[in-house]
Input
Amino acid sequence: MSTTPHPETIAVSAGRPKGIGEPLNHPIVLASNYRGEAGEYTRTHGTPGWIGLEEAVGALEGGRCVAFSSGMAAAAAAIFALAPKVLVLPTYSYLGVRALVADLVEQGRLEVRFVDIGNTADVIAALPGADVVWIETPTNPTLDVGDVKAICAAANAHGVKVVVDSTFATPICAQPLADGATIVIHSGTKFIGGHSDLLIGLCIASDDAVYDRLHHTRLVNGSTPGSLEAFLALRGIRTLPLRMERAQANAVEIVARLRAHPAVAEARYPGFGAMVSFVLAGGADAADAACRKVQLVVPATSLGGVETTMERRQKYAGDSHVPPGLIRMSVGIEHVDDIWADLAQAIS
Ligand SMILES: Cc1ncc(COP(=O)(O)O)c(C=O)c1O
Output
């Protein structure tokens, strides 16, 4: 092909065996050890399935990918590989990442500057003297959006490395490496896998030295993905653009209907992707009742699957700072009228 392939084409074609007579998909290799004296061992050498997944994600993000056992393992690897002493972190970011960082702060190994990631001036003011800025965009669960390009430009000028957690954006809605990010991470457990049947994490870098550090980090930390999980994640990628197209169209429609509903005080939507957060005027009790009343929509904590899920977030200690009546919803690919009919009866 002479032209650069589109994401839909990359999603379908990348990461496949290419030789004549080879199967279309990499086999699921269930082996930790290899016969011989070359020292091949799965933690060090990987399996064909990991490599296929990494090729596809790397091609979608415009860099080189290292796959990990979970999104948290990928986040920890990014921190381990860049070893910051001073980290700029969004206040409203995924609670798991904040817990990881809090442990390091408690051990005296890291200083954190919390910022409002939607306020670019606030973020840029925190950069001098920092080592890494962590951009989660859109954030979990308040869906704040960071200006990746502007923050990367300022960070690069200050010699600050940039990590972007692009889990909610997916490689379909954003490619932060092109904007100057050092490492992009994904919880592949979510939209990339897309079927709520696996845990996997991904780090992508365009700089070879950063890629090498990430690869080495996986090797020494042993945070390797499973072969079955890698196979399933790559199979998920084949339909990622299609799923995102449908889920996003559903999300746009659901947000419009939520905004017109008298029980809803506020509906947040970043303008792309399939995550919606809405606040019920009746507060925590109304939100808990809605999560109990849904029948089609699944009351569940994870997100990014083909099915619509929702949950009230303030119930978690790590998210105690979000509005009590805030429900985070991951919009799936069901018919939008069926999602809405269920949601409307639950919030009414
Ligand atoms: C934005 C974000 N980053 C990272 C993670 C961690 O991913 P995992 O659960 O695959 O470890 C999550 C999980 O919910 C998330 O929402």
Observations:
- The radius of gyration is 20 Å.
